[in-house]
Design goal:
The protein is of the alpha+beta class. Helix content is about 30%, strand content about 15%. The chain contains 6 helices and 9 strands. The strands form 3 sheets. It has a 3-stranded antiparallel sheet. It has a 3-stranded antiparallel sheet with strand order 4-6-9. A 3-stranded antiparallel sheet has the order 5-8-7, with no helix packed on it. A hairpin with a 5-residue loop joins β7 and β8. The longest helix has 17 residues. The structure holds ligand HQG. The site of ligand HQG has 17 residues, from α4.
Length: about 180
């Protein structure tokens, strides 16, 4: 399948499965799952037609493993990144490594120094365990600034951490005292 088409469908799925299922009148259950047959038929009515085979290819080849099927592939959901507040991904609390990283840009720094990292429009603050990923995330918005978060100290102080299916670290907020601001 043509790479451009795969990318277009992946963007469409991110929109529908994380933010706006209403756009094609799709229903997500409380854990974020959509019925695959319904997704295929409603997408095609909404002008984005693709087959089950293509959907499988999108899920398998996605660079960040953004989507997952259930066991018998009758349901699909996004692994993380939702803005719909009521979706519960049933993530388990786990102990994070000593440091996690967050890539951002200069224009947010004043606010981050004051309030720490906030989830903004998403359900969680997103953190990565490697600098390369954090650099990529920050670069989406301009010249990246990488913040080191003392995640193990946060965890010891009672903050919950979760890891999504695709390895992204999630937490509710990072207070500024746990961020190493490199001057
Ligand atoms: C910033 C993509 C002001 C924060 C990526 C970020 C990631 C603040 C922006 C995933 C702030 C929110 C998540 C504060 C945080 N004041 N700005 N107090 N606290 N910010 O997109 O982490 O392709 O919601 O630094 O690759 O950039 O969608 O979060 O710049 O994995 O799968 O507010 O999204 O993955 O932006 O990215 P986002 P993010 P996908």
């Amino acid at each position: 399948m043509n790479e451009k088409k795969i990318k277009r469908i992946s963007k469409f799925l991110s929109l529908i499965l994380r933010h706006n299922p209403d756009k094609i009148n799709l229903e997500l259950d409380e854990n974020g799952w959509a019925n695959v047959d319904e997704l295929l038929s409603k997408s095609s009515k909404g002008n984005t037609r693709f087959s089950m085979e293509t959907l499988e290819e999108v899920v398998e080849t996605n660079d960040k493993k953004r989507f997952a099927f259930n066991g018998d592939k009758t349901k699909i959901r996004a692994n993380q990144g939702h803005s719909i507040k009521t979706i519960d991904l049933e993530l388990e609390v786990i102990e994070p490594p000593t440091f996690l990283y967050h890539g951002t840009v200069g224009k947010f720094m004043q606010s981050i120094r004051g309030k720490g990292l906030q989830k903004m429009s998403r359900q969680h603050v997103h953190l990565s365990n490697d600098l390369e990923t954090a650099t990529k995330v920050g670069s989406r918005r301009g010249h990246p600034i990488i913040l080191s978060v003392r995640s193990k100290d946060m965890y010891d102080a009672g903050h919950a951490f979760y890891q999504s299916e695709n390895g992204v670290w999630l937490t509710d907020e990072v207070p500024p005292e746990f961020i190493d601001f490199k001057e």
